[in-house]
Amino acid sequence: MKKLIGLLTVALMFSLCASAQNKKDEGTGQPRGGGQADRGRYIPPRGPTPAREQPSHRETHAGTPPRAQQPAPQETHAPAAAQVQQPRPAQNRSYSDRSGHPNAPHVHSGGQWIGHDTGRDDARYHLDHPWEHGRFRGGFGPRHVFRLGGGGRERFWFSGFYFSVAPTDYDYCSDWLWDSDEIVIYDDPDHIGWYLAYNVRLGVYVHVMFLG
Questions:
Q1: How far apart, in whole angstroms, are the C-alpha atoms of residue 182 and residue 162?
Q2: Cα separation, 93 vs 103, whole angstroms
Q3: Strands 150-151 and 204-210
Q4: Is the model more confident about 162 or about 100?
Q5: Does position 203 have pLDDT exceeding 60, yes or no?
Q6: DSSP 10-78
Q7: Pairing of strands 150-151, 106-107
Q8: Which of 138, 116, 106 is nearest to 41 (CA)?
Q9: Other Cβ atoms closer than 10 A to 24
Q10: Is pLDDT of 105 > 70?
Q11: pLDDT tier for residue 89 given thresholds of 50, 70 and 90
């Protein structure tokens, strides 16, 4: 009888230890490999590549001297600023490239950043004083998933860091949950002074500025 009780006691102890270990493993909440978060939502493994520049005049007219293709300069007395042709910002653009995709800049599961193709001359993201508040050092990419702590598009925060959304991107974050959504920060290779904040829940991103 005593031997039977001892065996039952040992079996019960093993069962309790296994249950405790399973609960510990389930509660880690760490991102899994392959660019996926622990709940299966897609996180891009890397940021966008620089937008391809427009082909140069030499590439467009191979074998033709560049000067022969350019019109002769005309004299003008207009102010210098009036002679600079600013690039036209994209207006009323649709980002819903496939059925069910959001009408906002987003990322495909293959890592293609839809909407990040206007190049470094996009006047909407020009800053006279880039990095005036310093640079973000909290970590980039899928290994660093941050939970928003509050605020709004003009000023939001997480983990003691503060950011603001580019005004031209306000409409693309109207459904963000500023006190609970998870985001990932990426470098912007084209627009100096900006980062890209990717919303894990929605799969969309906006340009953001680091405030300190």
A1: 15
A2: 9
A3: unpaired
A4: 162
A5: yes
A6: HHHHHHHHHHHHHHHHHT--PPPSTTB-TTS-B--SS-PPPPPPPPPHHHHTTTS-HHHHSPPP----S
A7: unpaired
A8: 106
A9: 9
A10: yes
A11: very low
